[in-house]
Design a protein that fits this description.
The complex is a heterodimer. Chain A is built from 11 helices and no strands. Chain A is mostly helical. Chain A folds into 2 domains: 1-54, no CATH class; 56-268, MetI-like (MetI-like fold, Orthogonal Bundle), CATH 1.10.3720.10. Chain A is flat, with a radius of gyration of 26 Å. Chain B has 2 domains: 2-64 and 149-254, Rossmann fold (3-Layer(aba) Sandwich), CATH 3.40.50; 84-147, no CATH class. In chain B, 36% of the residues lie in helices and 23% in strands. A 6-stranded mixed sheet of chain B has the order 5-6-7-3-8-9, with helices on both faces. A 3-stranded antiparallel sheet of chain B has the order 2-1-4, covered by helices on one side. In chain B, strand 6, helix 5 and strand 7 (182-186) form a beta-alpha-beta unit. The chains are: A mainly alpha, B alpha/beta. Chain A binds chain B through residues 166, 168-169, 171-172, 174-179, 182, 186-187, 190-191, 265, 267-269, and chain B through 49-51, 71, 73-75, 77, 79, 81, 83-86, 94-95, 97-99, 126-128, 142, 146.
Chain lengths: 269, 255
């Protein structure tokens, strides 16, 4: 018997895989952008892509340089940033506060969760005329639109995060006789921070989307107004220049949130 | 200070978990609670610590706790319950801050308990940098910091590997010898029970009732790994529990 098994074929045990582990590869991200833009540039120069379908990337860049040189860039960016900043700040602050109250108080949860679920799917853009009536055509209605748009995702992310805080930690706080305030500020809030910050990524991206919507009515300057004007004139170069600014803004905000996460959440394994 | 449990009954809905528990936890003695899984020993400990309310019966503190006791009944959790965002000293100062102990005074207590649990070199470390045994040491240091009149330990060594367990048992014994404390120690590990318990309370399967109380008179410091006398006690405890453990294992959980 044993001879048979020994004489039998011998072969290497095949490697079956490492469990879908992801690796960090830095250069691929930029490379994708470069290849895509280079393809668009080549296609429009050769005539393979007509200039009506896509603007030439170098022309878009030229438009961007014009914007810079004429000083119009800042004239558009500053009001947009103010709207984004004020609106998102209001939405995030109020949203976090409401989210935490939902997480902590059963009555608030029972009362507000259905309400938030009802508000969440409403396209906030549809409410712009209403906000104009309520808050006037000036800045206030734009702030309100962006604030409402960031409010709902922040609430949902925050109370989910509070629910996920380890209950043993709270029980520990109670067993050591910590006050309710201390438990909330020293245990619940820091414990919910990872969830709140990942919610922030989503709500800030929504804020950028709504910025364009907010500038549809009664805005002379602003990136959104610039894009909408270019769009209605079918000026693709300017349209793309504006869109590029928004994309860059998204990348910057995401990087800022990432930086905050690294600073605040270094304790995570 | 001693603890007196008077006729404690508890149930979750229809399910009765504890029935007529009468028990005395003497001053400066360690009482171990053992029993098959699901017999309600952790529930009983939570009731003693005031983290859960029994359906009927009372837990009474006889005699007032020492004046310097900050949190008379202090819990040690199985999964350590350390705040991952606070360092070792931060986790200890957390439980002092709320009792108005700060700065110099807190500093003194923290240095003292870290020294007693051999953690002085790890003051600034975050929980994620520590091994399981070290984490439980931090939790014990935190419990000592509030100068408890009674410590309630809920399977404190169950999440640790067996070598670390032995080391921490030795540490607990030397902590107790240096400054005896009252403790209720819940475990399912009979070896821990005979090493650390002055008396061992065996609970029966659900609904948990006291089946027998085994007293071991041998001083803690003299108990060692592989002690023949302790082995006998352990065997006796196992005989008490075996049948119940088997039927507890086969039970369907309808919770």
């Amino acid at each position: 018997m044993s001879e048979v098994t020994q004489q039998g074929e011998s072969k290497l045990v095949a490697f079956k895989g490492g469990g879908f582990v992801t690796r960090k590869i830095k250069w691929v991200g930029p490379a994708v952008f470069i290849v895509l833009i280079a393809f668009m540039e080549w296609g429009t120069r050769v005539g393979f892509i007509s200039s009506l379908t896509l603007p030439r990337p170098s022309d878009v860049f030229g438009t961007f340089v014009d914007l810079w040189n004429t000083g119009l860039l800042w004239k558009h960016i500053i009001p947009s940033f103010t709207r984004l900043g004020v609106g998102a700040f209001l939405g995030v602050i109020v949203g976090t506060a409401v989210g935490i109250s939902i997480g902590l108080f059963s009555y608030v949860r029972a009362g507000l969760v259905p309400l938030v679920a009802a508000i969440f799917p409403i396209p906030k853009i549809a409410l712009l005329p209403l906000f104009v009536i309520w808050f006037g055509i000036d800045e206030a209605s734009k702030y309100a639109l962006i604030a409402l748009g960031t409010f709902t995702p922040t609430v949902v992310a925050t109370y989910g995060a509070v629910d996920n805080v380890d209950r043993t930690l709270i029980r520990m706080g109670q067993s050591f006789g910590l006050s309710w305030r201390s438990i909330v500020f020293k245990i619940v809030l820091p414990g919910a921070m990872p969830g709140i910050l990942s919610g922030l990524r989503v709500s800030l991206a929504i804020a950028i989307i709504l910025l364009v919507a907010a500038e549809m009515l009664g805005a002379e300057f602003g990136i959104g107004a610039y894009i909408l004007e270019a769009g209605s004139l079918f000026d693709l170069e300017r349209l793309f220049a504006g869109v590029t600014i928004l994309s860059l803004l998204g990348v910057v905000i995401s990087a800022l949130v990432g930086f905050t996460e690294n600073r605040l959440l270094g304790w995570r394994t | 200070m001693k603890l007196l449990l008077e006729d404690i009954c508890h149930s979750y809905g229809q399910l009765q978990v504890l029935k007529n528990i009468n028990l005395e936890v003497p001053d400066r003695k360690i009482v171990c609670l053992v029993g098959p899984s699901g017999c309600g020993k952790s529930t009983l400990l939570r009731i003693i610590g005031g983290l859960e309310k029994p359906i009927s019966g009372n837990v009474i503190q006889v005699g007032s706790p020492p004046k310097d006791s900050i949190n008379p009944l202090t819990y040690v959790f199985q999964d350590f319950a350390l705040l991952p965002w606070r360092s070792v000293e931060g986790n200890i100062s957390l439980v002092l801050e709320d009792h108005g102990i700060r700065h110099h005074q807190a500093e003194e207590i923290i240095a003292d308990v870290l020294e007693r649990t051999k953690l002085s070199d790890f003051r600034k470390a975050l929980p994620k940098q520590l091994s399981g045994g070290m984490k439980q040491r931090v939790a014990i240091a935190r419990a000592l910091a509030v100068k408890p009149a009674a410590m309630l330990l809920d399977e404190p060594l169950s999440a640790l590997d067996s070598q670390t367990k032995e080391l921490l048992m030795d540490d607990l014994i030397s902590l107790w010898s240096r400054q005896p404390f009252t403790a209720v120690y819940v475990t399912h590990n009979l070896h821990e029970a005979v090493r650390l318990g002055h008396s061992i309370v065996v609970l029966s399967r659900r609904p948990g009732k006291i089946r027998e109380i085994v007293n071991i008179s041998k001083p803690l410091q003299e108990r060692e790994l592989g002690d023949v006398e302790l082995e006998k006690y352990q065997k006796h405890l196992w005989n008490l529990m075996r049948d119940e453990a088997i039927s507890a294992d086969k039970e369907l959980l309808d919770v």
